[in-house]
Fold:
Amino acid sequence: MLFRSEIDALITNAKGGLSPAIAAAPAIAPAAAMGNAAGSKAAVTPAVAYSCKARLLEQRDALLYLLLRSGLPDHEVFHGLTLADIIEPAGAVRGYERDQSLRRLAQTRLDFVVCNKRLEVVAVVMFQSGRQADDATGGILAAAGVRCVLIDPLAMPRHQQLRGLVCADAPAPAA
Structure:
C-alpha cells in the first residue's frame, strides 16, 4: 500500500512531463467535483487546451436568425440541424440500406429550420452558395415535401418579407 507522500511524489513526477496548461488543469471532472454520488472518478485531462467561442453564430447566421425570429414571431427557428433530424427514408427502405441513407442524411447540415409552435417543419432556410450540394439537398427536401428557401447572403430580405418567402400560403398572425 502506498503512503500519501509516495502518491504525491508520483503525481508531481507525472505532471512534470506535461505542458504547463495541462499540468495546471484540475484533476477532477466538474461532475465529480459537484458530488457525483455514483462514485467520483478522476477525469482524464485532455491533451488539447480548449476555449469557448466568442459567438455561437457567425455574423451572417446571427443576422438571418434575428430576421427570422422578428419576421416569424409565431414560429420556432432552429440552427444547424441535419437532414436526418427532419426527414427519414421511406418506410419501405429497411436494414442496411436504411442505415446508410440515415448516415448520408446526417452528414448534411442545414442553416435554419423553421417550425410552427407544434414543432412541425414549415420550411428549411439556407444560404445560397452555388454548390452542387445545394441542389442535391434541395432535391431531397423537395422529395420529402419540405419547402426549401434559398437566401442570398449579400442581399438579405427584410423581416417583413420573410413570412411570404417561408410560409407562402400562411396569413400573418392576428395582433
User: Anything to note?
Assistant: Residues 4-16 form the longest helix (13 residues).
